[in-house]
Design brief:
Helix content is about 20%, strand content about 30%. It is α/β, with parallel strands linked by helices. About 30% of the residues are buried. It binds adenosine-5'-diphosphate and magnesium ion. The site of magnesium ion has 3 residues, from helix 2.
């Protein structure tokens, strides 16, 4: 899964998200870095949908810091974990405690963290890092690597 990818449309980014979903397993944390409009939410929704997220949950606009997309659903096995999406964009330092990270970053769950560079200290070692950069109107460079592979 690690590597550099280029997508030329929103749907190509979503398709890449589906491939990433197939590589993820329970306990994985995926940390996203990229400016506003890069495509972080687009990719997270595609991955979450491929993991069986409730479409109504991913579609609903919400100002909550933590989105619960429901149980992981796969044909191959019975899953007990849930899909979470944390958005750190509006999080104030004093609110980190309120996230309930210990419960969310459980070994059964799969968790996406948007704006991970805002509070890199809360991203556990072993997380996957996805950097998305807008390199043209509809062009995005997407780099997938290990979170702790270099400095932030
Ligand atoms: P973020 O969460 O990073 O702020 P969003 O996913 O909400 O970004 O928005 C990305 C925007 O960029 C959407 O309006 C989408 O249609 C547009 N877009 C254009 N090209 C692409 C691409 N190749 N990949 C992802 N999004 C794209
Ligand atoms: Mg977003």
């Amino acid at each position: 899964m690690n590597g550099e990818y280029t997508t030329f449309s929103e749907s190509e980014t979503a398709a890449l998200g589906e491939k990433i979903a197939a590589e993820l397993s329970e306990g994985d944390i995926v940390a996203f870095i990229g400016n506003l409009g890069a495509g972080k939410t687009t990719m997270i929704k595609a991955i979450a949908s491929a993991l069986g997220a409730d479409e109504r949950e991913t579609a609903s606009p919400s100002f909550a810091l933590v989105h619960d997309y429901g149980p992981i659903r796969r044909e191959s096995k019975e899953d007990v974990g849930r899909i979470f999406h944390i958005d750190l964009y509006r999080l104030e330092p004093g609110e980190i405690e309120q996230l309930g990270l210990w419960e969310i970053l459980d070994e059964d769950n799969i968790c996406f963290v948007e704006w991970a560079d805002k509070y890199p200290e809360i991203i556990p070692r072993g997380a996957v890092r996805i950097d998305i950069t807008r390199t043209g109107e509809d062009v995005r460079t997407i780099i997938i690597k290990d979170w702790n592979s270099d400095e932030h």
